[in-house]
Design brief:
Elements (H helix, E strand, L loop, with lengths): L9 H5 L5 H24 L11 H33 L7 H26 L6 H16 L5 H19 L4 H18 L2
């Protein structure tokens, strides 16, 4: 197997959004949506501890939850890639994977900057649609070979972003649908 290293695209083998990593990311999306819903619901209740916090602290909690989501999703992709590279006897980091990692980091920094700018401008209703639009574009840009199911997942994210743009309170359902879609993609693309 080690003699046939040129037959495999190291990026496609190492960092792919299929199987268990996609299922984990779907679970993380679902947990993130539940955590956001819990914080928002209890922030509006006067007798709850979260209701006594200032809106700035709630914003910090939201940013922290998003950071934890990105960290766990990145770790799921990394460990999946590490396992795949070990199975194929390939190096985990080469030119393609380093470029893909740089795209990934730039995309995450851009996404966080966009969401924080929208939050600071008071355009809270546009945070979820902007996230979903950026996530859809991000799914298409990170993968080098387009798979039909990734395009479907990306189009679903765009569609959910349009729904959230029209109906801002649809954010929880959108995150839940995206979580189910990720888990389904992981099961289908094993």
């Amino acid at each position: 197997m080690a003699n046939n290293k040129h037959l495999y695209d190291n990026f496609e083998v190492n960092f792919n959004l299929k199987g268990f990593s996609s299922i984990l990311i779907g679970i993380y999306f679902f947990l993130l949506s539940i955590a956001y819903k819990y914080v928002i619901t209890n922030f509006l209740v006067d007798d709850h501890t979260l209701g006594m916090l200032s809106p700035q602290i709630i914003e910090i909690i939201f940013i922290s939850l998003a950071g934890i989501f990105i960290l766990f999703s990145s770790l799921a992709l990394f460990f999946s890639g590490k396992r795949s590279s070990k199975n194929f006897h390939l190096l985990l980091w080469n030119g393609k994977t380093k470029v893909a990692f740089l795209k990934y980091v730039i995309g995450i920094v851009f996404l966080f900057a966009l969401l924080i700018i929208l939050m600071n401008l008071g355009l809270v209703d546009y945070i979820t649609p902007s996230f979903l639009f950026t996530y859809a574009i991000f799914l298409l840009l990170v993968k080098s070979n387009f798979r039909k199911n990734i395009i479907i997942l990306s189009l679903l994210s765009l569609l959910l972003g349009i729904y959230c743009f029209i109906i801002p309170s649809y954010w929880y359902s959108s995150f839940t649908i995206l979580a189910i879609a990720h888990a389904t993609y992981g099961i289908v693309e094993r």
